[in-house]
Amino acid sequence: MFRTLANKLTLSRIFVIPVILLLLALPFGWAAWLALFLFGLAGVTDWLDGYMARRENQVSQIGKFLDPIADKLLVASVILLLAFNGKIDGFAIIPALIILLREVAVSGLREFLASLAVNMPVSRLAKWKTTIQIFALGFLIVGTENAPSWIPSTLIGGILLWVAGIFTLVTAYDYWRASLNHFKS
């Protein structure tokens, strides 16, 4: 079941989450940078596991199940801890909340559609949304206090979080619109 490299990469993304969260809880600059490195690595495995599974013709049911869960756990846990630490605050809470709520709603929608044997593939725009989220959270993980003085890391992260929030709303609407016919009975 977990013998393929793609599935092992997906599992690694889940297993690294507690380490990232522990590092984010530590008040040291090196911990923020190590958290960023691990978070970035996890982001790369998100792309790599799908690519490898398709390339090696090893797409599996467990991989299709775990991959979106790993993504949502990674993003949601980092957003929550950054909000707890005050690195996401003020109006930046709004796109963070939009991202979290969309993930729950789309998961529920996918579950409903799966019960009807309807597949809802990830759109290209949703992939861009995820990429922007990863960059936004990466800048926020480091924060201005740990970044070089010429990089306004928190400002960049906040702007990217708003861009991701807008993409999140658009992709949520796209998924909802595409699924409306399946609610008619």
Order of helices and strands: HHHHHH
Radius of gyration: 17 Å
The shape, in one word, is: globular
- The unreliable regions are none
Distance between the termini: 37 Å
The average pLDDT is: 90
> How many helical elements?
6
> How many beta-strand runs?
0
Description:
The protein has helices at residues 5-25, 29-55, 61-84, 93-115, 124-146, 153-179. The radius of gyration is 17 Å and the shape is globular. It has 185 residues and is an all-alpha fold. It is built from six helices and no strands. Helix 1 runs antiparallel to helix 2.
Brief account:
The protein has 6 helices and no strands. It is mainly α.
Q: How are the secondary structure elements laid out?
A:
Layout: H1 5-25, H2 29-55, H3 61-84, H4 93-115, H5 124-146, H6 153-179
Helix pairs in contact: 1-2, 1-3, 2-3, 2-5, 3-4, 3-5, 4-6, 5-6
List keywords for this structure.
185 residues; mainly alpha
